[in-house]
């Protein structure tokens, strides 16, 4: 997986949330969490595996909503940050953090209701193999996101420290067909690239986000959205 060593560095893990989800990045955090919740609802009592859970943004949120969640990541440093977030959290569900490899998930077949993988597919060396492995341990649903080939992200993609794979809609649709998964819904968002939001204060980012959302509500700009949120079923 791309960026594996980079994500395991202590300083990267410690600064990860502040660099990406403070300032205007708060809008990204809110949108991603809403995408996950809307795909999984109702959350309560649902068993969920999050692959590449990182600092636990989604795992903690889902456990607070009443899900029984396992967060898996290759990076011990990221998991340490995730465990720190549980201190003082009011969890109505359960939460466990495990270190492990997304390519060889340490769970039996059909073990979870839902498997999610946010901020993951752009790093996957073999997306079909990873999708098959997620399908193996899920009995109902898989939720993931992809960064899009024809978006503004392609302009600065080369500068990212771990590289990044961009997808067209047709590529993902082909992956779903190969792994015998059924598309339930796909939502496109963020015409303005993430990097701009992170670079500016929230007060400035908010009106840009309002304009972005208004323009993105039309069908043609969807093809140029930076990210797509995919909700797929095993049925």
From TrEMBL:
CDD domains: AdoMet_MTases. InterPro entries: Methyltransf_11 (IPR013216), SAM-dependent_MTases_sf (IPR029063). Residues 49-139 form the Methyltransferase type domain. One of its GO terms (biological process) is methylation. The keyword Mitochondrion does not apply. One of its GO terms (molecular function) is S-adenosylmethionine-dependent methyltransferase activity. Gene3D superfamilies: Vaccinia Virus protein VP39 (3.40.50.150). Keywords: Methyltransferase, Transferase. It comes from the Archaea. The keyword Cell cycle does not apply. It holds the Pfam family Methyltransf_11. This is Class I SAM-dependent methyltransferase. It comes from Natrarchaeobius halalkaliphilus.
